[in-house]
Fold:
Amino acid sequence: MKTLIRLVQFILSEIAELCSLISLTIMAIGFYTILPILLFFALLAIIFAGNWSWSLGVLLYVLIACAVFLIFKFIPEFLNFVIGILMNERGENKKIYKKYEQWYESVKSQEYERRRKSQKEYQRQQYEEQQYWKEQYQKWQQYQEYSKQEYSKQQQESRQQYEKQNNNNSRFGYQNTNDGGIIQKFEEYLTVFGIDKNGEINDNVIKKAYRKKMKEVHPDKNSNIDATAQSQKINAINEFLKEQLEYYLIQRRRG
Structure:
């Protein structure tokens, strides 16, 4: 039924448009041909006879032509209005608008949910990134602290080793300097043990010389009063020679 009404509306609208076009054509022809002639005769009637009937006729002609044009022009609008009432287009439009509102609210809700999830994901990523860099910073601080402790430990060990070396040297009346004192003292103690400084020097040579020297000064075989002191001195010399042997050999190879 609605389709038939729409078809009738279309046909009537087309007829009205055609009539409007025809009336417009007639008006154009009349305005450009008939109207000037009528105006000319109306002017002559007014001038020579003082008759205004021709003028009223011209005015009536113009009004009728305009009315016909307007009627044909507004017929399609009138048909649309009437058919809209008959087909309840206002109610249909309300339904369409309501569906559009529902669709708009649905899209709006989906977009809001999408943005909310996106914001939540962004905040989560920001938090994870902050935690990551915080952990990295803590690890860096721990590494710095560990490095400081290791450095302090190494410094302390070096200091202790240096003090120990100085203490060992001080037992022989010698301070470790850069003037070759160790070499000189080492060679003096080689002479005490009866070892040739230009000959072969190693652990076995020092050990044999130490045993030989201890037999001479040991309190069990030597009745001198200072035999014990001499034995202690021989032990100290033996320790010094063993500790400084590697250093002495390196320096002797260097020349």
